[in-house]
Fold this protein.
Amino acid sequence: MPTTAPSAPPARALADVTASDSTLRRFLHGLPGVDAVGLEARAASLGTRSIKTTAKAYAIDLAISMVDLTTLEGADTPGKVRALGAKAVHPDPTDRTTPTTAAVCVYPDMVAVAKEAVAGSGVKVASVATAFPAGRAALDVKLADVRDAVAAGADEIDMVIDRGAFLAGKYMKVYDEIVAVKEACGTSARLKVIFETGELSTYDNIRRASWLGMLAGADFIKTSTGKVAVNATPANTLLMLEAVRDFRAQTGVQVGVKPAGGIRTSKDAIKFLVLVNETVGEDWLDNHWFRFGASSLLNDLLMQRQKLATGRYSGPDYVTVD
Amino acid sequence: MTIEKRSSAFEYAPAPESRSIVDIAPSYGLFIDGEFAEAADGKVFKTVSPSTEEVLSEVAQAGQADVDRAVQAARRAFAKWSALPGAERAKYLFRIARIIQERSRELAVLETLDNGKPIKETRDADLPLVAAHFFYYAGWADKLDHAGFGPAPKPLGVAGQVIPWNFPLLMLAWKIAPALATGNTVVLKPAETTPLSALFFADVCRQAGLPKGVVNILPGYGDAGAALVAHPDVNKVAFTGSTAVGKEIARTVAGTHKKLTLELGGKGANIVFDDAPIDQAVEGIVNGIFFNQGQVCCAGSRLLVQESIHDELLDSLKRRLSTLRLGDPLDKNTDIGAINSAEQLARITALAERGEAEGAERWSPACELPSSGYWFAPTLFTNVTQAHTIARDEIFGPVLSVLTFRTPDEAVAKANNTPYGLSAGIWTEKGSRILAVANKLRAGVIWSNTFNKFDPTSPFGGYKESGFGREGGRHGLEAYLDV
């Protein structure tokens, strides 16, 4: 089913929107507003869905297959990354029917190691780039960062937008930067654009950033770096799902969504899948279009999976700590 | 009972709330003077589950003689109850509120079985509001001197209360909590299709040690309600239900000393301006008309949408309606439950057919209805004008009439062009417009950028043929005080 051109052209239907700074600003500010109370109420109400038995088993396997297993620490070493890769390929060594994760997500200098660790498994290697997580560097530095990762074999690039420029209203600067990064990704790497929604702060901003990212050619829009206080929430993810839904309706281009940071339990992950199911439907229920940026989530999913299979909880000593 | 055909790969497995938490007896009596008793003439009626037509229980049917006994019991209890210090009455109300919270799962399942509404609603809306109402009025019981009705305001005496079937326990709470807080005693008649939660409430009263005769519950039909309203020893009549019956009651009560409040029908306008937060407006429209299958007097049954965004909004609305899950009300994932009775279903069906016959365009999402029980698919009518019956008559079902307007003035004119005046909604991101339009709408409750939000602190009631008097809040005390 996933058949997107790796570098879909910026939506032609909206080409004139990005003709100048002022047309872009007018367009983004003309998007319908977001009522915060209503948005959060809708997200909370979908959170009360009760997912049981067969539906739960399906959701857990789907969630495992959507995990971008992540390590983004200063202390990352080749050993740590190799272990992570092994875990992504065989999340549960006691049960080979467990799906692999979607990807491992590492810093650019670890891409080569990660690539080797997951070779032949179908697991992708994603790399954060563009002076992650702050994004405070000159454009050529950011682009060099991206080219490095791509040259090392990254299948996906997770970039951060310039939140300073966005909050200052310099939308065209943000747009141009995303376009440049997209170009640096070439045809081999898919681009995820991180907004750092916790720093954008308002839902109106998140909606505008979503459209800005999609207009600039993002293959995925992603909530957060996981490095600030507020990361993925059901409400901001719901809002971004609405954005990709509306963008496809207007342009025919499908864009993926990746909530990242703060999703730690199976219960949480299933709530996000319910949001996907009831907002954009099954077209997005696939790891080509929806991901979880997470590290500790995987083990909880595995424990829940074991519980469904055996009828009892095995505990944290029965899943691997890598 | 899986009834929805869904193409999605992510099919939700049935997640039914356990029915075993509630123990429904094969028969129930009337609750008079603290005891359950058979009707004087021995009459009984059956109450069924609207989602399956299964008989849940057989209930004693009150007649004139029973009304007499109940009113006498309430009269006897009045002297002592009204003489209690407010703080003492408050203790009983707080106790009732806590027992309701403790038994909320049981009562939610019971209400869902007897009424047909989804467990999601009884669990997350009805029961929390019921408890909140008792807590709220418990707080007023010892502060009546400071409520703005003069020093030491006096209760009226015996309150005769007749409630509808759409929110059986919540309407009971709206009636009984302020009546008891102010020192009145009560004879309450629940609707004939939903008597059970009121009878369970009788048990809650016993559990709370409420003195005998303070609350009397008389399940029965319209004749029992009429007898109660007409009873010469009743001092206060409170009714929630149809406008036709409300008019009848007003005629009965006219010329007597009885104090009267009526909460009647509605044809609420939900006005969506072109600068509205569209995704949230869609949720509000859905909540406005499909909450409780549209069997809500304050439902937003007329959608007034600015013509410039009509098509876009309707596309979004239809897409959203396609995700509604209709089916077993006890399933925690059900959004749309059963219609309360065969009679109500027939009325909704007839009005919808009338809408089609008058030329409005009918639309429903693909949705398979269960083979037994009373069901009606969520329905939209477009190309509706003020002249259509479905834009004027209260349907009291999951049927939305969509009309358009061009300017704010036209929106206000159309919204007010109804004999009713209970609720309205305004959707716009512009604060000044909310205030300007709200000031011109003649409706008792106006929601902005939300719909069907209830709170015990907020007064609720109608303009015009939607009734008079207010329930809830400080205003709700007045109806039960001799002021």
User: Anything to note?
Assistant: The radius of gyration of chain A is 19 Å. Residues 234-251 of chain A form the longest helix (18 residues). The domain at 12-63+126-281 of chain A is CATH 3.20.20.70 (TIM Barrel).
